[in-house]
Design brief:
single chain, mainly alpha, 2 domains, 3 strands
Length: 372
């Protein structure tokens, strides 16, 4: 009788059921980027795989961080990232009409990306220390709102509406999971409906208003503002069920599809791999998100539960907004598709979320919860 293969204890703790599909998705993304570059590993596919390898090592380091250390790092980490955002306003590099990056020699960092998981961490820490009896008072909403508004205001000044919405979404999910009264969220939703028209006319930049107009009626300007989404729909629809075949996508190869390697990488994939490729991508994202939710449910204390729930929501926001965007169900806001789009900032943020979830998953295997 053959003996079953047993992994060493540290390796057995790694969530292979999530990591193996994740690696398959990254490899599939590299194949799509290889095609988008005209059949070359350079400049997209090779750097995509290298970045994933680097940030996967980072995630493994995060996996070993103790719960107490993570809890203590919440507020200092928030202050550091907030100062980096202030630094962007003073010293930031301008690119594509936006001021989003800090550069120091070969190092280029986008602090707004770091704020997405950081806002989840600091709010999870805050609500963990908030007595349960105060969850219905102003202390449950005013300080968290202040923690969110400061970075959101700085990011909106860059301007970067997509990242601002991502920070707001991650923070709102943590607040919701903390157990605040539902009537507060209903009131916030009604206030949003009232504020939305004012924000459209007085709060958005001209190019942001054009994106909203294009979302509502892309055919009104097919050669201008509506060009991106029209070409994306053509690419997705022309793939059919089996797709045109690897390397046979005319929309991306003939430069009809804008940004085929970043924001519209799903359209590039769908044209060549069809509905079958799309189902594979959705299946893997479903596995990752389901695992994240299970990690949150199994958490032994409020801090771990809110942290895991918020990090899972952050990944979900990336996936949902990008897929809705490329199919014309949401305005184009520059949100890349996790683990498939070419881009270091997106890969970094999502691998921080994966590393954080792996960290909580390891905590779940320990018996003692974090005390207040």
């Amino acid at each position: 009788m053959k003996r079953a293969v047993t992994l060493p204890a540290p390796l057995a703790e790694i969530p292979w059921g999530m990591l193996v599909p994740l690696c398959a998705l990254v490899a599939f993304g590299a194949a799509v980027l290889h095609s988008a570059a005209g059949g070359s590993m350079s400049p997209y596919a090779g750097s995509h795989l290298l970045r994933f390898a680097i940030f996967a090592l980072m995630a493994l380091v995060m996996w070993r961080i103790p719960r107490d250390w993570t809890f203590l790092m919440a507020y200092p980490g928030y202050v550091v990232v907030l100062l980096l955002l202030l630094g962007v306003e003073i010293l930031g590099q301008v690119g594509g009409g936006s001021q989003r990056w800090l550069e120091a020699g070969p190092i280029r960092i986008q602090p707004s990306e770091l704020m997405k998981p950081t806002i989840v961490l600091v709010l999870a820490s805050y609500f963990h220390t908030l007595p349960v009896g105060l969850i219905n008072t102003w202390r449950a909403i005013v300080p968290p709102a202040a923690l969110m508004v400061m970075p959101m205001g700085l990011v909106l000044m860059q301007p970067d509406l997509g990242t601002t919405l991502a920070i707001a979404f991650g923070g709102a999910i943590v607040i919701f999971l903390a157990g605040l009264p539902m009537r507060w969220f209903v009131g916030a939703g009604l206030a949003g409906v009232i504020i939305a028209p004012l924000a459209y006319f007085f709060g958005l930049q001209d190019y942001q208003r054009r994106r909203v107009d294009t979302f509502l009626d892309p055919e009104s300007d097919p050669q201008g503002a509506g060009y991106h989404i029209i070409q994306s729909k053509i690419a997705i629809g022309s793939g059919g069920i089996p797709g045109k075949g690897f390397g046979e996508g005319s929309q991306s190869h003939l430069d009809y599809l804008p940004e085929p390697h970043t924001d519209f990488v799903f359209a590039t994939m769908a044209e060549e791999w069809g509905l079958l490729g799309g189902i594979f991508v959705l299946l893997v994202f479903g596995i990752i998100l389901r695992w994240g939710l299970n990690v949150a449910r199994a958490a032994p204390d409020r801090f771990s539960r809110l942290l895991a729930g918020g990090l899972t929501a952050t990944i979900f926001f990336y996936v949902a907004i990008n897929l809705m965007m490329v199919m014309g169900l949401a305005p184009v806001v520059g949100i890349p598709l996790p683990f498939m789009s070419h881009g270091g900032s997106s890969m970094m943020t999502n691998m921080i979320c994966i590393g954080g979830l792996m960290m909580v998953d390891r905590w779940n295997r320990q018996s003692s919860p974090l005390s207040n």
